[in-house]
């Protein structure tokens, strides 16, 4: 018939719980319902897709591993995803090795020709890029003795000129609690100690050691 429903009911407790399978056109839906009227769509299958949490409620998706409870976990309230962890709210995608793997992330290319690979690309897809915009950062963060999590090091690229397509790359390192610009590569020059802090510059070539 029109939108047939298969209902399974558990009425052993104070609240009745229902699982409903509904065929609606090309879609097969699974809903969780109770006797209070609460209803949540768990998943919906179509010929071209499988959708979890189509109602967009606070419902997580969890895949358990042999030794971890969160091999893959989405946190619906935070709109993010974790691998081997419940994702931190500050990250859209959070990966934790749990201290048990040689590599936290491995990106592999099996290309056998002379082309470069694998490639990691940071793409800022903005329709209104202006001078001074950051094009992406690599940040080294960790705990200190007080339990804070400062940025210990940072590499990032900024746009200098959007017309001539000029940019600069900056290398910053934590110094007395503040990130200092220690090395900068511009389209027109290379600068050491851009911030002018009290930092020596050493050049070692063979048996020669020059320090300023």
Report on this model:
The protein is an all-beta fold and 212 residues long. The protein has strands at 5-10, 17-24, 27-34, 39-45, 50-52, 61-63, 72-75, 80-83, 93-95, 134-141, 151-161, 166-175, 178-186, 190-192, 202-205, 208-211. The chain has a 5-stranded antiparallel sheet with strand order 1-2-3-4-5, with no helix packed on it. The protein has a 5-stranded antiparallel sheet with strand order 10-11-12-13-14, with no helix packed on it. 4% of the residues are buried. The mean pLDDT is 92.
Produce the secondary structure layout:
Elements: E1 5-10, E2 17-24, E3 27-34, E4 39-45, E5 50-52, E6 61-63, E7 72-75, E8 80-83, E9 93-95, E10 134-141, E11 151-161, E12 166-175, E13 178-186, E14 190-192, E15 202-205, E16 208-211
Parallel strand pairs: 8-9
Antiparallel strand pairs: 1-2, 2-3, 3-4, 4-5, 6-7, 7-8, 10-11, 11-12, 12-13, 13-14, 15-16
């Amino acid at each position: 018939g029109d939108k047939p429903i298969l209902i399974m009911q558990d009425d052993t407790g104070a609240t009745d719980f229902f699982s409903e399978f509904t065929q609606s056109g090309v879609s097969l839906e699974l809903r969780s319902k109770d006797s209070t009227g609460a209803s949540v769509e768990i998943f919906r299958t179509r010929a071209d897709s499988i959708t979890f949490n189509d109602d967009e409620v606070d419902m997580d998706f969890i895949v358990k591993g042999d030794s971890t409870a969160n091999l893959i976990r989405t946190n619906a309230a935070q709109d993010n995803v974790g691998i081997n962890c419940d994702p931190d709210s500050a990250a859209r995608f959070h990966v934790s090795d749990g201290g048990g793997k040689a590599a936290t992330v491995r990106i592999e290319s099996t290309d056998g020709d002379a082309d470069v690979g694998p490639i990691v690309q940071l793409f800022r897809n903005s329709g209104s890029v202006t001078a001074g915009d950051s094009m992406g950062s690599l940040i080294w963060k960790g705990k200190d003795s007080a339990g804070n999590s400062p940025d210990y090091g940072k590499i990032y690229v900024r746009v200098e000129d959007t017309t001539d397509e000029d940019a600069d790359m900056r290398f910053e390192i934590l110094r007395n609690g503040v990130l200092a610009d220690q090395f900068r590569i511009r389209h027109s020059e290379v600068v050491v100690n851009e911030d002018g802090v009290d930092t020596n510059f050493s050049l070692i070539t063979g048996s020669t050691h020059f320090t300023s």
